Structures are given as C-alpha cells and as structure tokens.
Amino acid sequence: MIAGLSKAVILYLAPLLSLTAILLSLFALLAPTMLLHDQVALLTVLPSTTLVQPGPSQAVDGPSVFMGVLGSCSKPNNAAQINCTAPVISPVYDLSVLPGSSPSLLLSAPTATSPVFIALAIAFSIMFFLTFTLISFRHKLGGKMTAILDKPVLQRLSAWVGFFGFIVGLTSFLIIRMWFGKAVQDFNASIALQGQQGPKLVASTGNAFTMVWVAYAFYAVPIIASLTKLNIYTEYIIP
What we know:
Helix content: 55-70%
Keywords: Membrane, Transmembrane, Transmembrane helix
Transmembrane segments: 9-31, 116-137, 157-180, 208-227
C-alpha cells in the first residue's frame, strides 16, 4: 500500500503540484499590470481610517494602488476604472492618485534584477516540470525515448535544474518581501505621525506573497521526490 501510494505521488501528484507552482509564480510575477489588476498584488495602498482614527476601521472612499515587480495599477476612488502602467523590469509606480500629504516617495519598486531572477527561476521550473514529468512516465513512452530518459545523467540534470530554480525563485521573493515589508512599515508610520490630519490610507503586503509561499510549498514536493530518487539511485544502483 505504501509503495503504491509513493508511486502515485511521484507519477501524478508531483507533476500536478509542479505545474500549479509554476502558474502561481507566474501570477505573482505578472500581476497586477498584465492580469488580475485589482485582485493580486505584492503591495497595496487602500482607503482606510485605521491609522488616523482610533477604534475599528470605517468604510471610506478614496484612492487605491496595487503594486507588483513589473508596475502598478491605480484608481482615484472605489467606483473609478482602474489604470495600469506598462509592464517593465524597472518600473516607476504611478502614485498620482494619492493625496499630496501621503508619503508616496517611500513606495518604490525593487531593483531591476528582481523580475529577471524571478523569470529565470520560472524558466528553470518549466524545464524541470517537463523533464520530471517525462522521466516519471518514461515506462509508458517505450522505444528509444525510454532508454534516453533512463540515463542517470539526464535524471541528475533534471533534479539540479529544479533545485536551482527553487532556490533562485524563493530567494528572490524573500528579498522582495523584505523590501516591500519595509516600505509598508515606513509608509504607515509616516501617516500615523500625521494624526487625524493624515490621509485615510493604509499600506499592506498583498496576497501575491501568499500565492508565492503556496507555490513553493507545492514545488518542494517534486523537488524532494527528484532528489530522493537521485540519492537512492546513486547509493544503491551505481556500484
């Protein structure tokens, strides 16, 4: 039973989790400028009375800004149409909808290398997904394809490609999380210092980070499976 369950995880669940991780990472990279404009972002600035009035937050109409590594989207009020900047690797956020008293200078994009490293990590993840899936189902392909996929060098290369993509992607998102976390802290502290005269805004890290952590938790399953098979093959099959 355990052997059958292990086989099912490697053959079916692991490739599915790897594909899901790729899609979630792509959403986090491309949002909000290219898709999910007001639904997914790495950092958001929304209307709120939390920082300027004591007690629970009250419903308030005001500007909203949604930021990612490729650009930003914004709208002047809740009912307005959202506008997005062109996606570029070194974006300048459009914060013109925010009032002049807001500390908008504290909201800046991370370095241009961040989206490049994330894109590189996703590219390696796609390569790993394709090779891992083919290796897992090599017994059903038959012929020369099975013989090629049975080669230890190909399986070893697939495992290390996946591991490299995992490390680069996770490290890049962790750095971006620290960057935006500091921006949120400084932005909110500056508004709170203005007291009741401050703009009714609050910044927070967005749900894109939740998608990223889920993506890399999923991605870890096929990576571990691939490295485990590599370790077993090296220790017990190769003399």
